[in-house]
Amino acid sequence: MTTHKTPTPSPEPSDVSEQMRVRMDKRAKLLESGVEPYPVGVDRTHTLSEVREKYGHLAADETTGETVGVSGRVVFVRNTGKLCFATLQEGNGTRLQAMLSLANVGEEALAGWKSLVDLGDHVFVRGEVISSKRGELSVMADSWSMVSKALRPLPVLHAGLNEETRVRQRYVDLMVRDEARQMVYTRAAIIRSIRETLHNRDYVEVETPMLQLIHGGAAARPFQTHLNAFDQDMTLRIATELFLKRAVVGGIDRVFEIGRIFRNEGVDSTHSPEFTTLESYEAYADQFVMADRMKEMILNAADTVGSRIIETDAGTIDLNGEWRWLGVYPGLSEAVGEEITPETHGSTLRAIADKHGVKVEPQWDTEKIVIELFGEIVEPTLLQPTFVYDYPPAAQPLARAHRSKPGLIEAWDLIIGGMERGTAFSELIDPVVQRERLTEQSRKAASGDHEAMQLDEDFLRALEYGAPPMGGIGLGIDRLVMLFTQTGIRETILFPLLKPELG
């Protein structure tokens, strides 16, 4: 006795809709008729952009006699009796009209188009380049074929694509919103400009480890992981600083890296657990040289993406204007209406914090409180480019002591639009002082401070071989893109980290 097994149905997405079932049926019909709904390729001769560039001058109802093969995603379709219209779109957003007439493609092909093609499909069209009677540049098809059958319908712009969906399904966002695609190109242009600026200053780009035995280079909580090959606990890097400085010790006098950083901290409109930074280090430079480098990079990036004048909700930012310098203690003093110095007692600072609604932790020392007060009270008011400098040592354990002002360090943060965009300092190269600083950091880590750095013996050994005087920069790429586009950090990162979807 022969038994016949029931064919196992193809697995379906968990959220399949009636529209998807209709599209899946069309896919099946293509296969049944011997047509591949996802061919390996098509005989495309031109991109849509190339057709527009070459033939965009055509007058209404003009023909060319030129045959092209083009492909794109169907974003508009209108089917009438004997003539069908479709708008095709390619990756950069360029659109071109396709026309299919009964006379040119035949009854079978036209019927197939009407019954099988949906919005979102990728199709291939071959035909003559013409201009329609209304003056619309078009390809009058003599044949068409399916390139990729879309099983999910495109969302209705502004109605079916809320902010959460846009960020979570960025691929859909890119399909339907010009602004989303432009963000990708803007970010790439900014990064390219930064690279070019540094290359023109004889900097060398390098890559440093993302997996590290010891976390350091910043005050941040790291992500923990485990390397099975060594049976070794490791962390994802929170900064590129310590390895780049090793390179300078070794003789690479001007060095930089643009790379991903990981910090196991909060998520909001200005912070992401993974983000991109530029760090650069230059031998025989100091904080003031690095300020010139920073300004040059930002102005060049502004020229690349548009304008040095940026309109914000808080007012107009003029990058052509003065890039002022503001000391931490004078700036805080002016803001709170009383003089604050490195000698100001902790009780006074806590009273100021209470008055201004700034939360401070009981274990914080006076330096930490001053940094927090400035960040909460003064920083948001700094609309124009401002180098905030003369910080207390707690701000940067890797910066050198000020050359002429006891109790301060040579470091600055660049504030534009009320937000920190980058930082720099004259680097600490004395291995004895650096060991003291990192030892104190390691004590804080042992006491439960998850953001404190660990003692990196190999980094200290490198400094003990003799590091030249140097300046260093840290620039947040995402925050620079945010400045030029006036968007939140989730919009500037192509695929930001999000909470898992429920259900």
UniProtKB/TrEMBL annotation:
EC id: 6.1.1.6
Aminoacyl-transfer RNA synthetases class-II family profile domain ranges (all copies): 187-500
Protein's cellular compartments: Cytoplasm
Annotated residues for binding of Mg(2+) 2: E420
Alphabetized InterPro entries for the sequence: Aa-tRNA-synt_II, aa-tRNA-synth_II, aa-tRNA-synth_II/BPL/LPL, Lys-tRNA-ligase_II, Lys-tRNA-ligase_II_N, Lys-tRNA-synth_II_C, NA-bd_OB-fold, NA-bd_OB_tRNA
GO cellular component: cytosol
Record carries keyword Glycoprotein: no
Catalyzed reaction equations: tRNA(Lys) + L-lysine + ATP = L-lysyl-tRNA(Lys) + AMP + diphosphate
Keywords linked to the UniProt accession: Aminoacyl-tRNA synthetase, ATP-binding, Cytoplasm, Ligase, Magnesium, Metal-binding, Nucleotide-binding, Protein biosynthesis
Cofactor: Mg(2+)
Enzyme's top EC category: ligase
Cofactor binding description: Binds 3 Mg(2+) ions per subunit.
Single GO molecular function: tRNA binding
Keyword Lipoprotein tagged: no
Domain of life: Bacteria
Positions bound to Mg(2+) 1: D413, E420
GO biological process: lysyl-tRNA aminoacylation
Family to which the UniProt record says this protein belongs: Belongs to the class-II aminoacyl-tRNA synthetase family.
Quaternary context: Homodimer.
Protein's UniProt name: Lysine--tRNA ligase
Native source organism of the sequence: Crystallibacter crystallopoietes
Gene that encodes the chain: lysS
